[in-house]
Amino acid sequence: MQAGKKWLAVLTAILGFSIAVQSPVYGGKKVNTKTSAAAKVDKAALEAYVRHLFVWGPQITVTVADPVPSELPGFQKVTVIGSAGTVKSLQVFHVSADGRKIVQGQIYDIKENPFREELSKLKTGNGPALGTPGAPVVLVLYTDFECPFCREEAKMLRQNLISTYPKEVRLYFKDFPLVPIHPWAKPAAIAGRCIYKQNEAMFWQYHDWIFSQQDAIKPENLKQKIMDWAQNKEIDTLQLGQCIDGKAIAAEVDATIAEGNTLQLNATPTLYINGRKAKPGLNWTQLKAIIDFELNYQKTAHNAGDNSCCEVTLPSPVQ
Q: What is the pTM (predicted TM-score) of this model?
């Protein structure tokens, strides 16, 4: 078992991060395949180069996607995916027309929010949240109930965030259980979503309790501990047990995992502040400085936050 975990850790280190493979997109829209079909890339040469670049040996499967238009004039965008079992890594390259020059890195449009791509992937509906809807600063937290670092960040956020910013900040909670190394994290996430469906306020009590019980919980006693905790609370325990054993909520947790994968997450906790991925291990003073900066910036920018974008609907009372 330990050897398997070590091998998984090695693969994760080599691949860099875990992702879900998606259809090519450009600027948030599907690419015109007729346009990209004319582009030519020597996939074998690019694969060989990338294998050498990242030390991706034969144990790693490499897939080179078809090129699509790049934001850089004269270049094509090519996605390269490395995979070993369930661990995947996505790398994006911009390849010159002659195939010789390769650019890797983020391309920014000065007229756009620098975190526009991340904001487009951060889905903030249908899940636990704290703070005021419509707040100018949104925090999205991907976390794991079995992760000790997540426990410490949860304490920091619960103790400081809403008391300091009662109206200015909205926090969205996202399950991202690291299933290969945390055996009870996903079942705990499913139970949390079941409780949330019954009573959102009780979810936050569960959130605090289960983090506090990390040292006492094991895969074999998790459900019983949850059911014991739920007794004499505003929770229908019969419904809770059925929900935990069902498949519907498991699919919701899988959806948040897939969402995290599109962001190329490889660790928990991972926190985004108006789309900006925070450095791991921020203390409250550091996080507060970023929030204060963003609050001031959004006074004029208005390009992030809980009501930042961009939907036009018909003026119908049923919509």
A: 0.76
